[in-house]
Amino acid sequence: MLLKERLEAIIPGWRDRQRTLAKQHGDVVIDQVHMRQILGGMRGVKSLVTDISYVDPYEGIRFRGHTIPEVLEKLPKPSEDAMPYVGGLYWLLLVGDFPTEEEALSIEAEWKKRNQVPQHVFDLLKGFPSDTHPMTLFAAAVLALQPESVFAKRYKEGMKKTEYWEPMLEDALNLTAKLPVIAAFIYRLKYKGGDFIAPDPDLDWGANFAHMMGVENLKYRDLSRLYFILHSDHESGNVSAHTTYLVSSALSDIYYSFSAAMDGLAGPLHGLANQNCLYWLQGVMNAFGGVPTHEQMRKYAWDTLNSGQVIPGYGHAVLRRTDPRYKAQYEFALKHMPEFDLFQTAKVAYEVIPDVLKEHGKAKNPWPNVDALSGTLQQYYGVTESDFYTVMFGVGRALGVTANTVWARALGHPIERPKSVTTAMLEEEIKG
Ligand code: AMX
Predict the structure, then answer these.
(1) What pTM was computed for the model?
(2) Which residues of the chain carry a pLDDT beneath 50?
């Protein structure tokens, strides 16, 4: 396998770099931890290392050092005006270099070989009550795949530590190959009367998802590729990435780790924000009977703020400019649905809300984030069931977090074990 050969070649160099840092510079202080951070969700504490992505406060996410516009431009594409192959992004995340077309297609070929989902997983999903949340179904399906773990089997048989990454890579490819099939199955089970659509062996991973969803507009294939690329990774401290990393640090396999991550993504503070953005925009349209004027939007935004609520889709914990993931979606919408009334409303929001938030004076970043537009794009193509959006987020997020687990095994990262203290100990600290 091309990918495995390339990883074999580069892993020793990375091992040396991290080993040298730990052995020769182990006492170097990287950060100090403040009381407010201990009591405030460990916000900003520098305590994780990943080379796969980094969030720059001004340029947004960089995948392997490259900004979103660079990634979208340089990854191989099915045609000049199409969105890139997701397989190419997975190569970039895992290997660190932009792939050639052959390398990108080699990942797509691996995925096609591995996308068969065992019947017992489908049967399990069909057995859940019909009102089960799609994220519950998604996490359960991933866990049900666990008996397939190559890592768990090889670990039981006994293998050298330096070999751990190899079965982890197998698991990562097997899992990511199956996720679009599982996600589309859940969609059709819940919302389309169980009328399932089989994968098309001629389509790439992103396009196949669009096909299995049953969306007829072929541009939805491009949107799917774009969506998965944009949602793939966002450093290692967010809940889904960190959960995957933490659980797998116990040498749990990828199915246990990723299923747990999806339980975290299901939380309203993580994966559900895009739904709230959509509801807010729809609320504006309902209030004014269609696309609002700038003045109406300003009033609605102030009403939201004055009632003590946040404006969904605006602000960010790290970013200090418009999220480039928002920009990429905005450009897509401008090209493919300029007249769509929900997009028109989102556009008015973009023109009005940053000034309102600046005037309000609280948010450190008044600009839109990734979630502000993603629901709008789905609505245009008829995927209106907003409970499902988090499942798509999860399919995309799998790319980054599984790449990270392969590297954590390759670099021999140990089990995570931060130290906790008691409230009394914190109080002692302030007495000096
Ligand atoms: N509307 C109103 N007030 C906002 C705001 C917004 N969009 N964004 C931030 N603020 C407020 C905060 O609530 C906070 O108020 P407080 O001092 O009374 O607690 C103050 O501004 C300072 O917050 P901050 O440091 O700028 O942001 P943060 O790091 O605490 O929070 C975030 C970041 C995204 C949770 C926040 O901007 C927010 O709630 N935005 C709206 C919800 C949203 O879009 N969520 C999706 C985020 C994208 C993602 O990561 N998936």
Answers:
(1) 0.96
(2) none
